[in-house]
Amino acid sequence: MLAAGRGGRIAQYALVLVVAITLNFLLPRMMPGNPLALLAGVDVGLMTAAERSDVLERVGLDRPLYVQYFDYWGKLLQGDFGYSYRQKRPITEMILAAMPWTLLITGVSLLISGVLGMAFGAISAWRRAGWLDVSLLWTMITINSLPSFWLGMLLISVVAVNWGILPSFGAVTPAARLTGVAWWIDVAQHAILPVITLSVVSTPNIYLTMRYTMLGVLGEDFIRTARAKGLRERSVLVRHVIRNALAPVVTVLALRLGFAFGGTVVVETVFSYPGLGRLIFEAVGGRDYPVMQAAFLLFTVAVLLSNLLADMLYPLCDPRSKNG
Amino acid sequence: MPSSLKGLRIRLGAALILTLLLSAVLSACAPATVAPTPADGDTEAAADVPAADAPAAEGSSTLRIAIVGDESTLTPYTYITGYPGWNLLLLQYDTLMQLDLAGVPQPWLATNAEYSDDGLTVTLDLREDVTWHDGEPFTAEDVKFSVEYYKAHPRSRFTAALTPVASVETDGDYRVILTLANPAPSLELGTLSDVPMMPQHIWADVETPEEYAGEDANVGTGPYKLVDYTPDQFYIFEANADYFAGAPAVDELVAIKFADDAGTLAALRTNEVDMIVRPIGPEQIDLLAAQDGLAVAQGPLFTTQMLNYDMQRAPFNNLAVRQAISLGVDRQDIIDTVFLGYGTVGSPGWVHPVSPFYNPDVVASFDPVQAQAILDEAGIVDSDGDGVRELDGEPLAFGLIVNGSDSLRLRISELVAAMLADVGMAVEISAVESTTWEEAVWPGFDVNQGRNYDMAMWGWSAPVQADVVRSASLIHSDPAIGNLNLTGYVSEEADALGAALRTEVDADARAELAGELQTLIARDLPFVLLLYPDGAYAYNESVYADWAFMSGQGVFHKLSLLVPEARP
After folding, report:
1. Do residue B12 and residue A46 have CB atoms under 8 angstroms apart?
2. The model scores a pTM over 0.90
């Protein structure tokens, strides 16, 4: 029974993957426009029709859609993502170069916003309707309505331009030729403002989830029972309330981990940070089909895996689902 | 209850303090390495120049410029944009001729160009003291190879630029003879000053030039060598001390890639870059010029802001409507409102007033009263009193498509819509993503595929305006010649003038044809030219101040980085 359930789930994930790969292939081609300008250069309008079709032929875009589709599957199964039309570089190389930067800022900010969101959420729920809860709630709702680009630009203008204490853009100081510890410090300095921006804007959601679920748990009968048993408040909070409120929050965090692979287009743009979000954004802008396909695939797989992770973590966090 | 929470609170507090401490430690390190110095980052330079704020001109100098968007590996087959990609490319490579600051072709790799009487044979003598970055001599064989290679491996700009050249022969090591299919008045401007020469000894065996990524892929003869490219982040160029025109003015050039314009502005203000390659927005000019150390170079640009419309469909197939549009838009108001005065009123004949080919008899006028009179006279009146005129029973209403990412163009569109409403036209603006907009106006970059728009905000890059012969491509009805005729303009007169302009080698006769063509364009109005924005370029003058404005083209080009005596 259990094995069949697990097999079913794997089949489900596989099906989603196949559908996603097909959509990843189709969607870029359904958008208006084509990658001709990337392939032949911006002055493509100066070329003759024969030269233009020559260019499309070289990358196989002249073939029927279904041929391109099967060709895409064939290459994919061999782990070949192809060449970028824009940068004329192997896509695997481009993704591997961008991924660490994105994971650095999204990972650290996920950690920070996770810790802060859960902590503040717990405090808020515990002190429901008290001044602490009300002020936290208002602060979080205010932060939640801040656009991340605005916050990023504010930080640049205050911290980088006015105070001059942190760099305003990029992941490293260009052409500084730093090595060892100096390089790491440089990387950390460049990451601070993007991480602050991302942490600030993603904390409210986690906070609100934590607060909401904890309030739900606090109203449950078993909490009253625990208190009636004479358990100390701290023990009630940690062993019963937080424990039971954790599952939805962990699910949110796991999903965010998946979305982290999609990069954060807005923050990466404001800080000119060389991550996956920029990669995807520029690929879409120029109709760089192979890069779009590869980046969307990576994103799909990451979201699916984080879903799987959430599925697996849920029973560990939720005492009830152990027996279920 | 409060006391039992203490443990949790302490732990939370500790975590918070730890986080704060961590960021404090990290930011405490900041001033040491990010302190802005003119030639920062280079430890060797720092050792040579003890004073941190010593002018960069002494010792080893570094210049950091901000570009928006990656330009790939910057070979003739991989660079991406026309500006600044082509300009960065030509820091490493040279052309046979080179535009001077007035935009006139001058001898460069070729010392002279002799034309046969029929204009079909061009003999070029080459400099004999030029070497490639790897030390190999540059010879006539390289020129012949480059021409043939671009023709065999299409790359839009250079393959198209070489269309006039039918064949190429060498005569000894330093003489090249080009045979043309037709007389080509644009040869020096559009071909010899545009196409970079490639080294035969490196590219001869390369089958797929787009993917060639050998160590020697960036070997040219130019003033700079590309020594480091970190994709999506930066390029480092090193001066070519053996450059035939003399060592360039700056030892190291770092081109830093930004994601958007706002980032470049912040970085210039923090001294993280020394120059922004893109023209800055009009609202930034006074702001940046006011900051200590920063300066703004301004001049006319050959880029255009114009209204395109599909002349094959109603109501734009009606001359009265086109005239009313041209008379109904207040070009000076658009310049004053959107460009804060930094622009030149568009000539209805296409050619920029600073061009030697400008026909001063062709002038734009703003006259909404006359616009209304013309429409009234043509029977295009508002018969149902809704404020919108009717043509053949249909309201004079149409869409105006614009690329939404361009905020200046969006603002122009809004003003145009309001101005046209005053003469009885209903304009609905649709702001879309760039590629969608481009595909509507210019499907597949191929005028044979027609058009899918009513009216569009449009603009051409500087090269189209810089060469008056190219105005033929905007108006000719044969797609092979009129490859930029995006408005469906068909006119026998225009075809005849355009064809003549393309082959007239006599300069005076060409100027006359260009003048006539401007009169014709202003009469038929195949598009409405609104304005030519001025170019404004911000730079840090304490780091490098020798930027030179090339007429219509801006300050970022090869000559700006050569010492002034070496500029032709």
Report:
1. no
2. no
